[in-house]
Design brief:
By secondary structure, the protein is of the alpha+beta class. The chain contains 9 helices and 13 strands. The protein folds into 2 domains: 199 residues, no CATH class; 94 residues, no CATH class. It starts with a strand and ends in a 9-residue tail after the last strand. GO terms for molecular function: 2-oxoglutarate-dependent dioxygenase activity.
Length: 329
């Protein structure tokens, strides 16, 4: 089902070699029976996801793909040859939703529409810009970040699908390991102090306007940058989005201070310029990135580079093996 073509300690690149046969049409039919509208390239959480998941996993090709993905131990998996190129947009979206649901339960970061999947593309020229625009709404590079850092419980896995390669030859997904970030920080006294401060201090991560519950006003979530949850047996988990932190502190100046700003700036410098990128396979094949099931927050920082034009590039869905209690949406 998946033949590994490249392998590093944290990243696998695999090619799907099996023929879907009639399975794609079967998947589209099942999804179409449960959704009358795909919500403008998006999906709402289904009211009975477990039953729908079981029905979809009855399709042999999808079940084998889900098993093959789950069996890969790498923190990131890039899949080539997925075999959806002949489908129209509606059919492709249905299959991508089914792939996401086959390995977990998609969660919504869009509080107003409830979408669990959407196109990553720049806002059309002339459209009014929100006060806090997120990476998937604009062109250009995206700073290193962990997904859904501004929500109480970020997803344990995320999936990106390449619709069209960026015309600038960009569009790479750059990955860092939080262990490498911590290792680099602990080389200096300032870095060790930053680790301690950002592990013990809840900070306001501002919610981008498109994901906020209301069009007006400021929303944020208080959380520490670093955490060692019991579920990870002492391993470090990280929540990071520098622009969301700066905008959150602007809304909560009572939580701000020189020591905190210095710590955040140092972590940002390490994340953006000093921590080593994971090996090249993750950068050359930005087809599907995922993080394996874990009981806490992602342990990687991910930076998808957006295309220099409004052409659709990635289909984006997020999922969790179990619906997280207290997650927005």
């Amino acid at each position: 089902m998946l033949a590994i073509t490249e392998q590093s300690a944290a990243v696998s690149v695999a090619r799907r070699s099996a023929d879907w046969g009639r399975d794609l049409a079967h998947i589209v039919a099942i999804v179409g029976n449960h959704f009358s509208d795909f919500n403008g390239n998006g999906f709402y959480p289904h009211p009975d996801e477990q039953a729908l998941q079981a029905e979809l996993l009855g399709v042999p090709g999808l079940a084998r793909l889900a098993e093959a993905i789950a069996a890969r131990p790498a923190r990131a998996l890039a899949i080539t040859g997925l075999g959806l190129g002949q489908l129209d947009e509606r059919e492709r979206n249905a299959v991508l939703y089914a792939i996401a649901l086959s390995g977990g339960f998609p969660t919504s970061t869009d509080q107003r529409t409830g979408r669990v999947a959407w196109d990553v593309r720049a806002r059309p020229a002339g459209q009014a810009q929100a006060e806090f625009v997120t990476f998937s709404e604009r062109v250009g590079g995206a700073d290193m970040h962990t997904d859904s850092s501004f929500y109480p419980m970020p997803e344990e896995q995320f999936l990106l699908y390449v619709v069209a390669a960026a015309r600038c030859q960009g569009g790479e997904s750059l990955l860092l390991d939080v262990d490498d970030i911590e290792r680099e920080l602990r080389r200096s006294a300032a870095g060790r102090a930053a680790c301690a401060l950002l592990e013990e201090t809840p900070l306001p991560f501002r919610v981008p306007s498109v994901y906020a519950a209301r069009e007006q006003g400021v929303e944020y979530h208080l959380a520490s940058v670093f955490e060692r949850p019991a579920q990870l047996r002492g391993a470090l988990a990280m929540r990071w989005r520098y622009d969301a932190l700066l905008k959150g502190l602007a809304a909560r100046p009572d939580l701000d201070g020189p020591a905190l700003r210095a710590a955040l700036a140092l972590v940002n410098e390490v994340v953006e310029t000093r921590a080593p990128l994971l090996p090249p396979p993750a950068r050359r094949h930005p087809v599907v990135d995922r993080q394996p099931p874990r009981p806490a927050r992602p342990r990687q920082v991910q930076r998808p580079r957006a295309p220099p034009d409004p052409h659709p590039y990635f289909q984006h869905a997020q999922r969790a093996p179990h619906r997280p209690v207290g997650h927005f949406g």
